[in-house]
Amino acid sequence: MTFIPFRVMRKLLVANRSEIAIRCFRAATELGLRTVAIYSHEDRLSLHRFKADEAFLIGPPEGGEPVKSYLNIAAIIDVAKQQGVDAMHPGYGFLSENAAFARACDSAGIQFVGPTAEQLDRFGDKTAAKRLAQDAGVPTIPGSEHAVAHPDDIAQKAQRIGYPVMIKASFGGGGRGMRVVRTPDELRLRVEEAQREAAAAFGRPNVFLERYIAKAKHIEVQVLGDGHGNLMHLWERACSVQRRHQKVVEVAPSINLPQDLRMRICDAAARLCRSVAYRGAGTVEFLLDTERGDFFFIEVNPRIQVEHTVTEVVTGIDLVRSQILVAQGHRLHEAPISIPPQQQIECRGVAMQCRITTEDPDRGFLPDYGRITTYRSAGGFAVGWTAAMASAVPSSRRSSTRCS
Predict the structure, then answer these.
(1) DSSP per position, 215-268
(2) What is the tens place of the pLDDT at every residue in 14-38?
(3) Which residues are catalytic?
(4) Is residue 219 located within the same domain as residue 346?
């Protein structure tokens, strides 16, 4: 068990941009904390800069590093120390799963709002997380136990697993570094593609192999732990509607999932995270084989996710607020968090999140970017918006609007 002493927080920096930064600012402001934003030159007009109490430029003043700026640990820590920041929220993406960043915060006397650096290490490597799941008695997909690199090793392991196989990046997420290989003839090419994509996205080319489950439902379970030994699940979300391994439609709860199977999946997620005394919000992802009825562990996302909003809607629990309070040392079932015991957590109603993707139909529907000339948002009862103005950053290629 990890002991967390109570910490008084006064100023929180969100090491991120756009919608998630604004979401974290809102929770922090409601808790009476001052908020600090960071922004690259390209984001100097982005909304998150103006939603915080203070905002500071990181990266070159003339620009040119729109993504790299948010990955500069030394620069972010330097801003935090100069401005008297005592808490750091990483959001999602960028440095949110970077154990070195969590350790840098600890060394600077800044409370990292998330899991411990050791937990990030354990879950950041998907093959290591898979071994943790096996130790906790959670079923895993047959595949390689460690990252593979040599072509001969890859070919032997793929033959042993049986085609089709799935290539996955050992580090990171978001569908990057994933390829389906159906025949031995295409294995080498797909591995090289996956390694290049993984290296570009996460700085590490490591990949591993798993059996490909053709007819599967993608189920993820929201967990929340306080590091004091209290850990619970907040039911599941379904995210099977995807585009290039990126989630497009998220629904809570999952549709047509038998109650006994739902309980077994959620209990498996809680059992895994309880085995490491997990601290903060996290998501445990599974694949459900719809032909055989078996479910398998995929990975743990040790951070808040884009799709956390649908869980908040159906459970009534503010996950970002809970993250901050857990980082202060509070316990889940005591004030000011005051979440009821597991058996009293109900899933009420249905919530859906849809993501808008921008693609170019003239280039085979490849991801694209550009200037939005006309925009009209939805509204009405039970429609919630967390949005931010998207800056023209060519390398981002992602929408900044979420609707749930």
Answers:
(1) SEEEEEEEEEEESSS-EEEEEEEEEEEEETTEEEEEEES-TT--HHHHHHHHHH
(2) 999 999 999 999 999 999 999 999 9
(3) 247
(4) yes
